[in-house]
Design brief:
The chain is an alpha+beta fold. The protein is built from 5 helices and 5 strands. It has one domain: 2-Layer Sandwich (Muramoyl-pentapeptide Carboxypeptidase, domain 2), CATH 3.30.1380.10. Helix 2 runs antiparallel to helix 4.
């Protein structure tokens, strides 16, 4: 993993997925030139952070997508606090980092799904998705409703409802607040 910001975000994920997230990133990056990397832009979120995202485009203005017809802007998520796998450290959102001038400092964050910066004939975004799917992650780009292209999650068969129930009941891993998964 080349991006120090991502290292910190991976460290905050549920212990059961940290290693696989690191492997997926390493597997994607091994096919990239040194001037392209993967950035984890979101990992673990508190319920309050989730509720703030849920409000965007609904009760709070999201500048992204704001028009006369949509004065509140675009809706960001359909999941309020406790209803997202991010709330349990089991999901990540990613983007592609680019060092445009190849000076060793990443200076652009790309959300493009159709760019092949390394010109190997495969979209870079799809290389990252494949690396995650190869390790058993579900990609939000395959969802039928509310497609979430930057999102990958590994949920071990648990619904958000079950995770919420376990969280509220404080069924945590010893000495931390991650839900204990069997």
């Amino acid at each position: 993993m080349r991006d120090i910001v991502s290292v910190g975000r991976v460290a905050a994920l549920h212990p059961l997925i940290r290693e696989d997230v690191t492997k997926a990133i390493d597997n994607a990056e091994k096919n990239f030139p040194k001037w392209i990397a993967v950035r984890i832009v979101q990992g673990l979120r508190t319920w309050d952070e989730q509720n703030a995202l849920y409000a965007l485009g609904r009760t709070k203005v999201n500048p992204n997508g704001k028009t006369a017809k949509k004065p509140k802007g675009n809706i960001v998520t359909n999941a309020s606090g406790g209803k997202s796998y991010h709330n349990y450290g089991l999901a990540i959102d990613f983007a592609i980092l680019i060092d445009k001038d190849k000076n060793g400092t990443y200076d652009e964050l790309s959300w493009s799904m159709v760019t092949d910066y390394d010109k190997n004939g495969v979209f870079d975004w799809q290389q990252v998705v494949k690396a995650f799917e190869d390790l058993g992650f579900e990609w939000g780009g395959r969802w039928r409703t509310f497609v979430d292209n930057p999102h990958c999650q590994k949920v071990f068969g648990y619904t958000w409802r079950k995770l919420s129930e376990m969280y509220v009941a404080k069924k945590y891993i010893k000495d931390c607040m991650y839900v204990e998964l069997a």
